[in-house]
Structure formats: C-alpha cells, structure tokens
Amino acid sequence: MLSKRDILKAAIDHLKNNYLKPYLATIEQTKQQRIETYIKNAAPQYRPLLKYKAASLQEIPLKALQDGSIDLELYKLSAKIELELKQKGQKFLSRQLTDIKDLPRYKAEYNQYIEQENDLGKAKLAQYIAHRKIVLTLLSNSLERGDDGKYSLEESVHG
Q1: What domain range includes position 35?
Q2: I need a labelling partner for 70 at 20 to 30 A (CA). Which of 23, 44, 61, 104 fits?
Q3: Positive or negative, the Cα torsion across 35, 40, 44, 45?
Q4: What pLDDT shows up at residue 142?
C-alpha cells in the first residue's frame, strides 16, 4: 500500500517533469549564474568548486542566495572536496605499484591528484590574501588620526 508521502512525492515529481520543467530550468540557470558570479567576484577561495564540483552546485538551495548563507553552503562543498582529496592522498600513500602495466594509469591518477591539490592550494592562498588585505586595511584605518586630530588608542590596534 502506498503511503500519503509516496503519493505526494510522485505527484510533485510528475508536475516538475511534465509542467514546470521549463520554468524550473530557467530558475536553475539563473541560480547557477549567480553562484558562479559570487564565486568569481566575492569568494575566489571556492573556484575549485566550479571545476571539480559543478554538478554539486545545483544542490545549493535557492534560499541560500537570498538569505546570505551561500558562503556556508560553498564552504560545506569545499570541505567535501578537501576530504575526498585527503582520502585520495591516503590511497596513494598506501598503494604499492606491483605491475609495470599499471604505471601509465597510476601516473595519470597521480597527475590528476596533484592538479587538484594545486588548485585547492591556490584557492587557500587567495582566501589568505583577501583576509590579509582586510586586516591590513583595518590596521591602517585604526592608525589614522581621528576627527579630533588624535590617533586611536593602542588598544584599538591590538584589539
């Protein structure tokens, strides 16, 4: 016997696939463009997601773009990539090459691993540079004279 939930799910899927598909496709396309624009302009540390997890970006709810939680959603996906890469690295370290015939495949997998590791390193560097720039700007602002002609107190510099 079908449950109420199963019937409702089947009805929703039918509506999505038969009647709402063109509308939903347009919304998905717009959402994808907004995510890509956000990554390229505001959050370069997530660029590897565009290359390695583009399909997963579709799973980000539209609401995340509207309520500002997009960074959190991208962070979750980024953490997944890092975990997968760490697991892949562990496999390479524990794997022993026994047959010379496996060498070309091993090299290809190794090169792919190194490329991903490099891309993640670049993303982390971009994040560090952006963070560093903000810190230096805040420091510079706190070292300037105020409207009263006096410098900020030392505690505002050291936080």
Answers
A1: 4-144
A2: 23
A3: positive
A4: 79
